[in-house]
């Protein structure tokens, strides 16, 4: 008896989710940042002094999620918030020197092998894969879902225990 195609699709989706989760954990272990935190840092690096709204649009995360990420990055002193010179009501995020150094240390967000293999495809093949993935997301009513819960992981248990003992958040000092 042949298995239905949908079952094979779901297995492939689980494999993709698992691979993404493993890479997220590797990045967290290597530099102490989540994938969404890296995405936000890279957006600030490419856009310069930038509002939450523009970052949100750039990385496809909600403004609330970006604000939470900015708070954590500010606590770690990777970004600072500065008022716009033109309009003092506007607050922009700016990369600090520490943030720039961190970006130089961050491993690739996707597996190198995937990036190399994907980039070696013809443009039409890349577009076909992207279109198929968007169609699957649509079939799962997932087009508007904030991707950060999948991409974000908790700090390692060891780090959480240390922070409870010292009553400090990561990246802060007395």
Q: Can you walk through the features of this model?
A:
63% of the residues lie in helices and 6% in strands. Helix 2 (35-47) crosses helix 4 (63-75) and helix 3 (52-59) crosses helix 4. It has helices at residues 5-31, 35-47, 52-59, 63-75, 97-105, 112-119, 123-139, 148-151, 157-166, and strands at residues 79-83, 91-95. A two-stranded antiparallel ribbon has the order 1-2. Residues 149-174 have low confidence and may be disordered. The chain contains 9 helices and 2 strands; from the N terminus they run H-H-H-H-E-E-H-H-H-H-H. The protein is mainly alpha-helical and 174 residues long.
Mean pLDDT: 83
Content of β-strand: 5-15%
Uncertain stretches: 149-174
Shape: elongated
Q: What is the percent of helical residues?
A: 55-70%
**Extended strand count:** 2
Rg over alpha carbons: 19 Å
Order of helices and strands: HHHHEEHHHHH
Query: Given the helix and strand composition, which structural class is it?
Result: mainly alpha
Distance between the termini: 65 Å
Total number of helices: 9
Largest sheet: 2 strands, antiparallel
Sheet with most strands: strand arrangement = 1-2
Pfam family, one: MarR
Protein name: MarR family transcriptional regulator
Organism: Neptunomonas phycophila
InterPro entries: HTH_MarR-typ (IPR000835), MarR/SlyA-like (IPR039422), WH-like_DNA-bd_sf (IPR036388), WH_DNA-bd_sf (IPR036390)
